[in-house]
Amino acid sequence: MLARTLEQHGLATILVTNMPYWAEKIGVPRTLAVQFPFGHILGQPGDVSMQRRVIAQALQVWQNAAAPGTIVHSEESWPTPAAEASKSWQPTTPSPVIAHLGPKLRELLRQRRG
Q1: pLDDT digit string, tens, across residues 30-69
Q2: How many Cβ atoms are within 10 Å of 5's Cβ, its own excluded?
Q3: Residue 32 CB: number of other CB atoms within 10 A?
Q4: Number of domains observed in the structure of the chain
Q5: Rounded Cα distance, 63 and 60, in Å
Q6: What is the pLDDT of residue 14?
Q7: What residue numbers bound the domain in which 108 lies?
Q8: Which of 31, 55, 88, 101 could be joined to 71 by an S-S link, Cβ 3.0–4.6 Å?
C-alpha cells in the first residue's frame, strides 16, 4: 500500500520480496523476487557483495520496468539449502502467539481448500 501511495504522488518504487505471489496479487508497481529466507531479503548478514548485487538488480528493475506490475526473478541463490537456511533463523519452539494460532490457521486453511 505504501508503494501505491508513493507512486500516486510521483515517486517510483521497487519491492524486493521473497513472496512475489503477493506482490502480484496486491499490484505492486515493480518487484524483484528473491529466493531467500524470511528476514534476509537483501542477502546473508555480513555478505556485503551479495547485498550490493541484490540492490543493483533492484535498481535495474526499477529503472527498466516496462509496465506496471513487472516482476523480475533474481538469479541470486542462497548458499545453503532452503530447509537448512530456515532452521538457522527459526526458533526451536514457536512463540506463544504462533503456538496458539497455528492449529487454528491450519484448520482454517483446510476448510478453505475443502
Answers
A1: 999 999 988 889 999 899 999 999 999 999 999 999 888 9
A2: 10
A3: 26
A4: 1
A5: 5
A6: 92
A7: 2-113
A8: 31
